[in-house]
Amino acid sequence: MEIENKSKSKGNPAWCKGVSGNPGGRPKVVADVQALARIHTKDAIKTLVAMMLEAENEGTRVAAARELLDRGYGKSSQSIQHTGDVGSPLEFLVRISPSDIP
Q1: What is the C-alpha separation between 21 and 13, in angstroms, rounded?
Q2: 7 within 8 A of 13, measured Cβ to Cβ
Q3: Helices 58-73 and 41-54 meet at what angle, rounded to 10?
Q4: In the beta sheet, which residues pair with residue 95?
Q5: Does the pLDDT value for residue 71 go beyond 80?
Q6: Most exposed of 7, 8, 31, 41 (fewest Cβ within 10 Å)?
Q7: Which residues contact 93 (CB under 8 A, 6 or more apart)?
Q8: What is the DSSP letter of 15?
Q9: Of 37, 33, 36, 57, nearest to 45 (Cα)?
Q10: Domain ranges of the chain
Q11: For the chain, what percentages of helix, strand and coil (3-state, to nearest 5) are there?
């Protein structure tokens, strides 16, 4: 079976305009875990700094430095190269064989 998607519309076609895809909002449990984790923010940063400066393993020092930079400045962006016409939408061709369907 072969499916082609050459749609130029943005977004998920299954979603209706103006209707939330998450009407219940973020689950309360996630918010509770975040609140508990944030209590330890200063200690966690101090631990990362100590690891960055004192760890014997270079990989550990680099990982700690990366975590500190990501939290302080955000993760660095990744570029994606598009080799099609400038301004044109990307076209996808999806091929599904019968063995792919459960």
Answers
A1: 12
A2: yes
A3: 140
A4: 2
A5: yes
A6: 8
A7: 2, 3, 4, 5
A8: S
A9: 37
A10: 27-72
A11: 45, 10, 50
pLDDT tens per residue across span 2-50: 555 454 555 566 777 788 777 777 777 777 888 888 999 999 999 999 9
Rounded to an integer, what is the distance from CA 99 to the centroid of its chain? 30
Residue 48's nearest CA partner among 38, 28, 62, 36 is 62
The residue count for the chain? 102
Q: Is the pTM of this model over 0.85?
A: no
Instruction: Report the candidate in 11, 9, 27, 8 with the shortest Cα–Cα distance to residue 19.
Output: 11
- The structure tokens 């944030």 sit at 38
Radius of gyration of the chain (CA): 22
Q: Round to whole Å and give the CA distance between 50 and 67.
A: 13
**pLDDT per residue over 35-47, tens digit each?**
888 999 999 999 9
